[in-house]
Write a structure and sequence with these properties.
Elements: E1 2-9, H1 24-27, H2 31-37, E2 41-45, H3 56-63, H4 75-82, E3 92-102, E4 105-109, H5 114-124, E5 134-136, E6 143-147, H6 165-168, H7 183-199, H8 202-209, E7 217-224, H9 232-236, E8 240-243, H10 248-255, E9 259-261, H11 269-280, E10 285-291, H12 302-325, E11 331-335, E12 353-359, H13 372-377, E13 381-382, H14 388-394
Parallel strand pairs: 1-10, 1-11, 2-13, 8-9, 8-10
Antiparallel strand pairs: 2-12, 3-4, 3-6, 3-7, 5-6, 11-12
Helix pairs in contact: 4-10, 11-12
């Protein structure tokens, strides 16, 4: 049997006044999602269980069937591996982003062109007081600070607490600074030094002339190292593949022993759909992670989110459902975001996410289109989110008759 898990990051949100108490998902046109809902099973699942923070790496671990309370990694190391950089067990990695701070309050996450970021980080590296550390620049803001395990420098990484940049927006900078252990002071000094360095930087002067937001601070966050995961194909006894853009999901796939399939020529919904269709011919379980919006900046706006949802439904989900329907063998599909998002604030609210499961021997219970509200009306609520994978693979199947 073929299994397809689709993870649309940014799909689900709380209701908002701007949409008259509805969510972007409820307003957007989603015939493929609604079609699955009208013949499948709706429910809700907790992907980031308290007291863990609401983060993409935790949500992804959960959806793959790993208990995040026992397998936390932090996204820095996974991003490193997913971008093709070498990373070893024991290496610690931080993400590096840029903020715009006004009057002591974080006003926005600064969008910095790759060439600008490379120039800034290359020049700032000599001012960073972390012996043995290496800055690696990447595309689309995925910049990294690596502290190799063999550097000989000892920091209390496990005590370190950092804020993701989107979580800092709207808050006083002083309230979001790194804290905990002997590394917090080092990183806080780096944030302060970056403000002095950037205040008169020529790139900033050019940005101001062009009417763009200035880059006021370098921001370290998302610390982590590679998790010691038992390979997913070994756990599930299935050939498993991950289809995603380079970065977090690809790094997690490699850590979990899955095949990683990169969509080409880009990470558009159509490209992801083509890559997933090819992966289905070679794997028993295919996981597709797509970014519906980019709330990890400072909020994308409701219109952009609804457009992203409709593109996901039309260009990715609909072709994949058609592929399954013509594949010539039993199949199941599960669609679930990795966490809740907010197009308005850019933050990730706590709470269960909606999901829909359809296909071979999946019963239909709630006669409603797919939305956060209709999934909340279902009696299927999975509190331990890492158990959803087992439910997806095994529920309703009779092992005495070979599973089908």
């Amino acid at each position: 049997m073929k299994h397809l898990l689709v993870i649309p990051s940014g799909l689900a949100e709380p209701a908002c006044a701007e949409l008259d108490g509805r969510t972007p998902l409820e307003v957007a046109r989603t015939p493929a999602l609604d079609g699955l809902a009208l013949r499948g099973r709706l429910g809700r699942v907790v992907t980031c269980p308290p007291p863990l923070p609401v983060r993409a790496d935790i949500g992804l671990l959960c959806l793959l069937g790993y208990d995040p309370a026992l397998n936390q990694a932090g996204r820095g190391a996974l991003e490193t591996w997913g971008l093709g950089h070498e990373v070893f067990p024991g290496d610690w990695v931080l993400r590096l982003s840029f903020l715009c701070v006004k009057n002591g309050v974080v006003s926005a996450v600064s969008h910095v062109r790759d060439a600008e970021a490379a120039a800034i980080l290359g020049a700032f590296a000599s001012r960073l007081r972390m012996p043995g550390s290496v800055i690696r620049t990447g595309a689309e803001g995925r910049h990294l600070l690596v502290q190799p395990a063999l550097s000989g420098t000892r920091y209390d990484w496990d005590a370190l607490v950092t804020f993701a940049p989107h979580e800092a927006v709207g808050r006083p900078l002083a309230d979001c600074m790194p804290a905990g252990g002997n590394l917090a002071a080092v990183l806080s000094d780096a944030v302060g030094a970056s403000a002095d360095f950037l205040s008169a930087h020529e790139i900033n002067l050019t940005r101001l002339e062009m009417g763009e937001l200035p880059i006021t601070h370098l921001w370290p966050w998302g610390q982590g190292r590679l998790p010691g995961l038992r390979p997913l194909p070994e756990l599930l006894h299935l050939r498993a593949a991950m289809v995603a853009e380079p970065g977090l999901a690809v790094g997690l796939a490699r850590a979990a022993g899955m095949s990683a399939v990169l969509p080409t020529p880009n990470g558009s919904p159509a490209a992801l759909a083509l890559a997933a269709a090819r992966a289905l011919s070679q794997s028993d379980l295919v996981v597709v992670r797509a970014r519906v919006n980019d709330t990890e900046s400072d909020g994308t706006g409701l219109a952009a989110t609804m457009a992203g949802i409709e593109s996901f439904d039309r260009d990715l989900l609909a072709p994949l459902v058609h592929q399954l329907e013509t594949i010539g063998q039993p199949w199941r599909i599960l669609v679930a975001p990795d966490h809740l998002s907010s197009s308005i604030t850019g933050r990730h609210p706590a709470g269960a996410v909606p999901f829909v499961m359809a296909g071979h021997r999946v019963p239909h219970v709630v006669d409603a289109p797919f939305s956060e509200a209709s999934c909340a009306q279902s009696d299927l609520h999975i509190q331990q989110g890492h158990l959803l994978m087992e439910y997806f693979l095994k529920s309703g199947l009779n092992p005495d008759s070979g599973g089908y």
